[in-house]
Amino acid sequence: EIVLTQSPDFQSVTPKEKVTITCRASQSIGSSLHWYQQKPDQSPKLLIKYASQSISGVPSRFSGSGSGTDFTLTINSLEAEDAAAYYCHQSSSLPWTFGQGTKVEIK
Amino acid sequence: QITLKESGPTLVKPTQTLTLTCTFSGFSLSTSGVGVGWIRQPPGKALEWLALIYWDDDKRYSPSLKSRLTITKDTSKNQVVLTMTNMDPVDTATYYCAHRSIGGYVDYWGQGTLVTVSS
After folding, report:
1. Does the keyword field hold Hydrolase (chain A) (predicted)?
2. What is the 3-state secondary structure (H, E, C) of chain B?
3. Which of the four, B5, B60, B98, B100, has the lowest number of CB atoms within 10 Å?
């Protein structure tokens, strides 16, 4: 099983700041890493697919990078509506696994 | 437009069997490459993958829960059913069904259904 470890677990950020969340895989997964945003009492929403590919309708301030074992989600110029938990997910091999999540709070 | 919706009991007793139905629209589960998966999330915790069924009826399960899970599909009804036996309070969670795209990633999620296991 591929373990995904996110850091940090929690981040308190002021609006317009840049947020960086990392996800490290226990073994190489190529670019089969996807990012989701989950707001309270909502289901997850796909933000980035295949490490860096943008999703239609997702604001351009969200971007992803990385390959192999190290990946990054970047939120440029954080907005109040970005308060949420963020999860990485690998589809390289079964069982599918998710990171433990990173909660982003707005100061 | 792809939509999925979970249905089933909100409360089950320990040792009982849970049956959840995912009813979807906007895609066909007979399309090559497509799948529907189940993922759960205990309150305040992370996401955990449970099971996945592919268009060709291939079925895959979480190794840690494999003995308790069964996933089936009814293509004509656009439904996928998950059963989980021997429920325990630690299985209390929101259960989501989700669309696996042809590209291999989850792109759409249902709204989720909270299942509480308690006597």
Report:
1. no
2. CCEEEEECCCEECCCCCEEEEEEEECCCCCCCCCEEEEEEECCCCCCEEEEEEECCCCEEECCCCHHHEEEEEEHHHCEEEEEECCCCHHHCEEEEEEEECCCCCEEEECCCEEEEECC
3. B5
